[in-house]
Amino acid sequence: MLGMSTTTGHGHGHTHDGINWAERLGHLQAIDALDRDTHADVAQRLAAGLPEGATVVDIGSGAGGMSSAFGRALAAAGGGTVVLVDAVPALLDAATAHVRAEAPAVEVVSVLADAADPALPELVPAGDLVWASGVVHHLPDQQRGVNTLARMVRPGGRLALREGGLATQCLPWDVGIGTPGLQGRLLAARESWFERMRADMPDVVRLPGGWGRALAAAGLGDVTSLGFLVDHPAPASAPARESVVNWLTFMADMAGEWLSEEDRATVARLIDPHDSAFVGNSDDVFVLSASTVHHGTRPVPPA
């Protein structure tokens, strides 16, 4: 029945990176609202050519921004099914509600499951398009994860991974307090966090090479990529400034131990709404990033 939502699987809310994503739901929703137009563009490009009544599977659906964009794209083409998969119940519930509100003409299926579960293809309906945004790099064995996702694609369908690109830039070189160049040091701290996050994962396996090679190794053909830009220039809108505050808060929580005491104090002032340096009131912050979507097609077996 169109618009109905079902939940299956055996999710447990665990994620492999140690991040409490349920606590970040509000931040994820704010990002989705800010990037709504970008999501729509990516969804339309990837959904072009899908069969009538197609099924799109969103692995690690988060707050549901891309799931909703896929739902709107399917609705515009006559309907279909959006399958949301996440290991965090609070995110899955919020994303399901979001898609149902945004695209009531499509069927919505929600599955509580871990993206690293090798049984995922048995828990989740097969998709004409399987989408995973910033998910696979959080899995201990990334190639195994790609292989599992490729098994979830119907013959002739596509697997699309949003991975890599250019990191978010949002601050002028000199923010007026602390030592100039804070943005670069924040990104370097994030890299240090990421290295340790992956090193500390049980049973972690390296993935040498790029994502296109991983898709090809999973048996997919016609492997290629597309890029898209998120650009909210200064003077930034209120939602963009809020996004900068959220980004800085997340960076401080995640990678603060790799920052100097001075930089930690600077960030604390930048995200304090009662401080004169609060970036939420700044007219010279911005949001600029670029992401890459790598995708390949599952071959159709010979007749």
From TrEMBL:
**Molecular function per GO:** S-adenosylmethionine-dependent methyltransferase activity
Tell me which Pfam families the record gives: Methyltransf_11 (PF08241)
**Domain Methyltransferase type intervals:** 57-160
List residues traversing the bilayer: none
Return one Gene Ontology term, BP aspect.
methylation
InterPro entries this protein is in? Methyltransf_11, SAM-dependent_MTases_sf
Question: Which UniProt keyword terms apply here?
Answer: Methyltransferase, S-adenosyl-L-methionine, Transferase
The name of this protein is Methyltransferase family protein
Organism of origin is Labedaea rhizosphaerae
The organism that produces this protein has a lineage beginning with: Bacteria, Bacillati, Actinomycetota, Actinomycetes, Pseudonocardiales
